[in-house]
Design goal:
By secondary structure, the chain is an alpha/beta fold. Among the domains are: 72 residues, Fe-S cluster assembly (FSCA) (GMP Synthetase, Chain A, domain 3), CATH 3.30.300; 43 residues, no CATH class. The protein has four helices and seven strands; from the N terminus they run H-H-E-E-H-E-H-E-E-E-E. It has a four-stranded mixed β-sheet with strand order 4-7-6-5. A three-stranded mixed β-sheet has the order 1-2-3. A hairpin with a 3-residue loop joins strand 1 and strand 2. The longest helix has 14 residues. It is elongated, with a radius of gyration of 18 Å. The termini are far apart.
Length: 171
């Protein structure tokens, strides 16, 4: 049996509207997880996504949400593929995505460290991350826990306004 596309919606626009299950204020496109959307063999929508880190438990939900959204838009054949290279970086978060994180009270990541070509030096010990408070803007913050509600976020507290907040870690 041959499936026939019944949609007039652009599959990329549909996929770009799907939000991250752990950060629902931001789309997979703004998060930089959505890598490619194309039609193959005349009727199959192929979507490529990259996890924010190896073993990300949200990948199954992302995949299901993309399939559901594209089915609802009239695309019966959807193939969601995981692409691991190049590895995802917080630099892939769009300016709009960073703004949405900040508006939701989550400190967006700073730019990832610049690395030179060649071997990546191994850094042992605690990594010093800084983040300004998304509520009052103070740079005087402290890390309470390296991990927050998800492994890609840290829990911090502002020393000025004393409010806790999450910070998306730089990768």
């Amino acid at each position: 049996m041959v499936s026939v596309m019944t949609s007039t919606a652009d599959p990329r626009v549909v996929a770009e509207s799907v939000t991250d299950p752990e950060l629902p204020m931001i789309s997979l496109a703004d998060l930089g997880v959505l890598r490619d959307v194309r039609i193959e063999r005349e009727s199959t929508v192929v979507v490529e996504i990259t996890p924010t880190y190896t073993g990300c438990p949200a990948m199954g939900v992302m995949r299901a949400d993309l399939v559901h959204a594209l089915h609802e838009a009239g695309y019966p054949d959807v193939d969601v593929r995981t692409v691991l290279a190049p590895a995802w970086s917080t630099d892939w978060i769009t300016a709009d995505g960073r703004r949405k994180l900040l508006e939701a009270g989550i400190a967006p990541p700073a730019p990832a460290p610049v690395r030179s070509a060649g071997p990546v030096p191994l850094q042992l010990g605690q990594t010093r991350r800084t983040a300004s408070c998304p509520l009052c803007g103070s740079a005087d913050t402290e890390e309470l826990s390296e991990f927050s509600a998800t492994a890609c976020k840290a829990l911090r507290r502002c020393r000025s306004c004393r409010e806790p907040f999450e910070h998306v870690k730089e990768i």
